[in-house]
Amino acid sequence: DKKKFYVSVYKDDDEAYNIWHKKIGLKTDRIFRFGKEHNFWGPAGNSGPCGPCSEIFYDLGKKFSCGKKTCVPGCDCDRYPEIWNLVFPQFNQTVAGERLPLKNRGVDTGMGFERLAAILQNKDSVFQTDLFYPIIEDIIKHKNLKYGEERRIDVAINVMADHVRALVFAIGDGIIPSNEERGYVLRRLLRRAVRLCRNLGFEDPCLYKLVPKVIKMYENAYPDLTERREEITLVIKSEEERFLITLEKGLLQFEEIIKVKRAISGKDAFKLYDTYGFPVELTQEIAK
């Protein structure tokens, strides 16, 4: 629905504004000018390419709004998801903060594929699209869970679906959960998902049971996943089993610490990691 599209441009970018208004034909009330916080990209570090950007939003309707009078594209609520971003790298920022013109300029475009799929499939969430919902159905089936009735349960199921899909693809690419670099990111994802499984009543390893569904969904585009199915399944199952051995004891230790101190110190967080395998990020999440 074209009437639901809105865009934003950098506050001083008249060129982008005029393209949207005069060439594309968007009315002025659908074009917003924002400052650096929303519409200026980069540099990625303390120096490098950077420039203004133009973002494209889609209005999901009032039921997703925060209700504030100030609710417009760029609001932190769910009403106007950003589905596309056009970055115009035209400066090279020095460490001192000086912005010099780039010799070679261009347009760097990035699309929110899953968000766009949700809009095209007329779904309220990316998790209701065919990119995720078959996995969610599989999770529900394994534990006879209710989906769409309680936010806490929905969020846990969504995270499980997202994380197991990420694990399947990453392990399929040869990355193994470990305590270093990329492997540590995988281990964090897996252990977070395992804790959520436990919260939903799963007592035994369950993530590995979702692997066949993920592979079936994507086998036409990624046939190599089918070839590595057994390896992916075994890696996830073994990681689940290993963490479940210490998870219960670690959670009990966490509760004891909270009873005494009402807060988690760095020393406590290290003990939970070193003894019970709790990534620091997992400890922070539980503490919140």
Automatic annotation (TrEMBL):
Aminoacyl-tRNA synthetase listed as a keyword: yes
The UniProt GO MF terms for this protein read:
alanine-tRNA ligase activity; aminoacyl-tRNA deacylase activity; ATP binding; tRNA binding
- Quick check: keyword Transmembrane in the entry? no
Domain (Alanyl-transfer RNA synthetases family profile): residue spans on this chain: 1-288
What EC number(s) has UniProt assigned to this enzyme? 6.1.1.7
Keywords annotated in UniProt: Aminoacyl-tRNA synthetase, ATP-binding, Ligase, Nucleotide-binding, Protein biosynthesis, RNA-binding, tRNA-binding
Q: What class of enzyme is it?
A: ligase
Gene Ontology cellular-component annotations:
cytosol
User: InterPro entries annotated for this entry?
Assistant: aa-tRNA-synth_II/BPL/LPL, Ala-tRNA-lgiase_IIc, Ala-tRNA-ligase_IIc_anticod-bd, Ala-tRNA-synth_IIc_core, Ala-tRNA-synth_IIc_N, Ala-tRNA_ligase
Which GO BP terms sit in this record?
Answer: alanyl-tRNA aminoacylation
**Stated family:** Belongs to the class-II aminoacyl-tRNA synthetase family.
PANTHER family, alphabetized = ALANINE--TRNA LIGASE, CYTOPLASMIC, ALANYL-TRNA SYNTHETASE
What is this protein's record name? alanine--tRNA ligase
